Amino acid sequence: MILVARLLVPVCLAIFGVVYFLEAGNIRTLYSQGPIGPDGVPKMFAVALGLALVGVVAIELRRPRAEAAPIDWGGFLAAVMVIVASAVYVALFRVAGYAIATALYSLVLLAIFSRAKIRPLAAVLQTAGLVALVYLFFVVLFDVRLPEGPSLDAFFGPTASPEAPATETAQ
After folding, report:
1. CA 149: distance to chain centroid?
2. Do 135 and 98 meet the contact criterion of CB atoms below 8 Å apart?
3. Exposed / middle / buried, residue 29 (Cβ in 10 Å: 0-12, 13-18, 19+)
4. Distance of CA 102 to CAs 114, 151, 154, Å?
5. What tens digit of pLDDT does each residue of 69-123 get?
6. C-alpha separations of 96 from 39, 86, 102 in Å
7. Longest dimension (CA), the chain
8. pTM of the model
């Protein structure tokens, strides 16, 4: 059972690497491709991941068996909370907009990682700084459009605006 637990993460990463490699072939570009193409670097990363996993599995198989240590459920719970918070962040991003979703996500992550022992004022200031810094990088430096504010269009599609009545022009 211990060997299965030690190899569970490498097996999951191997599955991820295979899917990543296969999906990298679907990357298309509108620009002329160089000698590598748009799928080249992702495929190289997937191959590097596979080679690293072969090394990790070889080391794990040669390592002597150890007694099972008690599981730290606190760390597991924190990991689950981060995954849930990330899923909620992704769901809220288009609906609530960048600033609101990222601020809430940052506050939740600060609470999780500090084990809820952070001062509220410090948390708000750190979150505001992070939101502003990321906004500066993406919007100002990289010219990436981020969702600006709350919108139900993410759920219901663009709202239909009444069309202007056609006017007849005098000839």
Report:
1. 20
2. yes
3. exposed
4. 18, 15, 17
5. 666 667 778 888 999 999 999 999 888 889 999 999 999 999 988 877 888 898 9
6. 33, 14, 9
7. 93
8. 0.52
